[in-house]
Amino acid sequence: MFLERNPRFVSRLTRETLALIMAGGRGGRLSSLTDWRTKPAIPFGGKFRLIDFPLSNCINSGIRRVGILTQYKAHSLIQHVQRGWGFLRGEFGEFVELIPAQQRMDKPLWYSGTADSVYQNIDIIQAHDPSYVLILAGDHVYKMDYGAMIARHVESGADVTVGCVQVTLEQARAFGVMSVQEDGRVTALTEKPQQPEPMPGHDDVALVSMGIYVFNRDYLLQVLREDAENFASSRDFGRDVLPAAIGRDHVQAYPFSDPVSGKQAYWRDVGTVDAFYRANQELIQEEPELDLYDDEWPIWTYQAQLPPAKFMHDQRGKRGMAIDSMVSGGNIIAGASVRRSVLFSRVKVGPGAEVQEAVILPRVTVEDGCRIRRAVIDEGCRIPPGMVIGEDLETDRERFHVTPGGVVLVTAEMLGQEVAHVR
Predict the structure, then answer these.
(1) For site-directed labelling of 399, which of 128, 280, 305, 375 has its Cα 20 to 30 A away?
(2) Helix count and strand count (H, E) for the chain
(3) Is 39 marked as a binding-site residue?
(4) What is the pTM of this model?
(5) What is the pLDDT of residue 266?
(6) Is 111 among the annotated ligand-binding positions?
């Protein structure tokens, strides 16, 4: 449609778009993983952070004006963005701009909701003067061409377009559930219902919002000002702004699908420890749904210059090996066995240790003779010699956090160690 009309149509639209990534939330369902970092700063996939996915999607889509709204424990996020995302050229009107909560004089409060975080930065939106504003979450894992969504938004004549995916009814309780007409117009949006409404003809799935919105600039400013004057509002897009717009204005749905197969594309909300663990484990499958080795849609990030991973024997002749695993730079596997695991950078696994179905974040040391099963080990931990994790969940509950899915989360504090500087 739009490509047949004008081959430059999409690139013109993306140049006229300002993306705002909401990266200020804690993500409390992730337990102690967010005690010292905001959720978008959590490491993912061996070398990335969650924020890298929406940022890479923007760059790959041709959107080169991006603001990141920060608030909760943002130091490691700011550090990462400054180190890894400073390559855009300001003289060409390109930028990745960090926008911290500023406690404005007329409203000396932190952000009170997703809509409020954007409302408090209306002056910055106006200064950049975009035609369209793309609102993104900073903590989802997916690869998406935003240009196609913006083009569909313009062609439909919508005031706002909402990206959406299908999930099971059980999963839908954690999202905004949508009702949509055949032409894609949204007729209802219910935030986190206990009894989600299934899609017509599909009793086991519901259509939910991805937290991705394309707004016409002037329309966005209008609805944000209206919401700010509503004292009963919780200042949230999903709970307040969009439900108020449905029926009054044109709210359009954009199903997220693979451009080749037409099937629903990969998208994960890693909002719990179990979901975070599963999404990392999916990457070590023989043909994972999320292809991190795709040269046509690379995921960009910052990573320190590190030596290659090293596998070595110890003095007793035990072989260091990793099978069905992802192993990052700076790792040393010394006479240890690693299976079906994701090891981030600077991880050391000592002689006789066994690591299986684990996700081990940066700068972790696993000492001699440890056994680790189905666990997430947080950054900077030192697992003492001979410690066993993941084999006796009752014992693990006494000292660590055990999820409903039986995954053991271990942090330095839980081990009685000084909390490492989260980088």
Answers:
(1) 280
(2) 12, 29
(3) no
(4) 0.93
(5) 94
(6) yes
